[in-house]
Design goal:
- By secondary structure, the chain is an alpha/beta fold.
- It has one domain (5-278): Vaccinia Virus protein VP39 (Rossmann fold, 3-Layer(aba) Sandwich).
- Helices cover 38% and strands 16% of the residues.
- Helix 6 (170-183) links the parallel strand 6 (157-161) and strand 7 (188-193).
- Helix 1 packs across helix 2 (37-44) and helix 1 packs across helix 4 (60-86).
- The longest helix has 27 residues, at 60-86.
- The protein is globular and about 50 Å long.
- It starts with a strand and ends with a strand.
Amino acid sequence: MENKTHIEKNTVQETLVIPLYGRKLCTEQFPNLFKDEKAVELINRIDYDFSPLEKKSKSLAHRFGALEVAMREGDLMIEAKDYLKTHPEATLVNLGCGLDQTAENCDNGKCKIVNIDLPDVIAVRNELLPETERIRNVAADLNDLSWFDQIPAENGVCFLSAGVFYYFKTGNVKRLFTAMEKRFPGGRLVFDAANKRAVKIMLKTWVKDAGITSISDCFSVDDIKTDVAPWMKNSAVTCRGYMLGYNDLKDPSVPGSFRLLSKIGDGFMKMQIVKIEFREA
């Protein structure tokens, strides 16, 4: 019998389970839009009590949450693949990777991939998704910018970050972005963001479920023109809707109510994919 990787309740490691389960759920619920067979496989290799998530999985909120997870990954993949068209040997960097395989799903056979997360998360990743010749798993705190030294960027670099910066203080995000602009000219950063209203809702539900209770001054984006663009000296900052900016969701498997919720999310909650192009000096 295969030994399973154990995940403790109320640990940082547990935060990687929720999006992983979301990708599994979306694969089952909306197979025409999204398939992540690796997520299904990894769920079966983890020793964790999934029963609370399974009980909630048929609810409207959790089905829509799964769709959100899938759309976010699809959006980031579109941007990463677009970057690889002009930088085929670039490095794709997954910031706060958890057990996410967005970068691997964009692999063109030439690029390098670096997955970065906290040490105890990387310990789990190394068990389930070990390194290969072109894929590295790096244990680091994103606020300690020394991890920059582990990124080969001579052929270009595209940073991807899904569901991460909501947990960061705004000042730390500004410091990170401005340092990246200076260090990685010609690179690209793509991440998801939402307004203060949405972030507050998130902290009351998903974050609380993950055992994180003491977060203040979290990063949010109401308007990129005032909240992000002024930080950047020499970069282009753009955004598109998170749910409907890249996909119209007119697939028959998606209930009409979910398209309505998506419009509310992209509009009222300002759920968005933000792209920063670090221009050459």
